[in-house]
Amino acid sequence: MTTAVISVSAQCAADDIRHLLVDRRIRRVPVVQEGRVVGIVSRHDLVAVMATEWVCQVCGEPVRGEHPPGMCPKCQATSEQFVLQEQPPGA
């Protein structure tokens, strides 16, 4: 067993965690805040986040993530202009 524990902070971006899990070939990573474990992120959690897609109602730009972005990267519309795009099963 490994004695050194790889962990991430609560503010760590999902894409950074994805790279960590793939590069280090690990399945789960603890989330630490102020020296205490506050959760665990698994590969399954990241797949769910990456499968969530928001679409800008102004320009149609799709953006993936758990929450809509603060601003559209294409037309600069606010987050209120984004709607959750339903994904078909198996997509």
TrEMBL record:
Listed cofactors: Fe(3+)
Organism, scientific name: Mycobacterium bohemicum DSM 44277
Sorted UniProt keywords: CBS domain
InterPro entries in UniProt: CBS_dom, CBS_dom_sf, RUBY_RBDX
Pfam families associated with the record: CBS (PF00571), RUBY_RBDX (PF21349)
Entry protein name: CBS domain protein
Segments forming domain CBS: 1-58
Top-rank lineage group of the source organism: Bacteria
